[in-house]
Amino acid sequence: MEIREAQKLAWANKVAKGFNTTDVPLEFGLLTAEIGEAFTAWRKSLPDFGEELADVLLYLVAVAEMTGIDLASEVERKMEINATRVYRPGANGTLIRHE
Fold first, then answer.
1. How is 67-96 classified by DSSP, letter by letter?
2. Rounded distance, CA 62 to CA 80, Å?
3. 2 φ, ψ to 5°?
4. Rounded distance between C-alpha atoms, residue 48 and residue 42, angstroms
5. What pLDDT is attached to residue 99?
6. Which of 55-93 are b and which e, b meaning 16 or more Cβ less than 10 Å from the residue's Cβ?
7. Contact of 7 with 64, CB cutoff 8 Å
8. Residue 53 clears pLDDT 90, i.e. is over it
9. Among residues 22, 72, 25, which one has the least CA distance to residue 11?
10. 3-state secondary structure (DSSP) of residue 7
């Protein structure tokens, strides 16, 4: 499935079920909660880790749809930007971006 299709299907499900479609701050809060659930599932090696990651994606694409963002296009654009970035280890070994 492609990002654009996932965005449209997730949105259609929200509308059909009567879930939040207008409150952007609420949706960010729910997204944050889903990230926490995914982290807990990973940390505890729970079998629903993949499902929790899917929930993160579904809330993320819902925020994109609510705010008029074509997430697929934004991901493509960002991947192009990231491909040209150069990183070097800093004094403590952490990678630092160099323009």
1. TT--HHHHHHHHHHHHHH-EEEE-TTS-EE
2. 24
3. -90, 160
4. 9
5. 74
6. bbbbbbbbbbbbeeeebbeeeeeeeeeeeeeeeeeeeee
7. yes
8. yes
9. 22
10. helix
Q: What is the token pair recorded at 49? A: 């880790």
Answer whether residue 45 shows pLDDT above 90: yes
Whole-number pLDDT of residue 43: 98
CA–CA separation, 26 vs 20, rounded Å? 8
3-state secondary structure of 2: coil
In this structure, what DSSP letter does residue 23 have? -
Beta bridge partners of 86: 98
How many Å apart are CA 71 and CA 10, to the nearest integer? 13
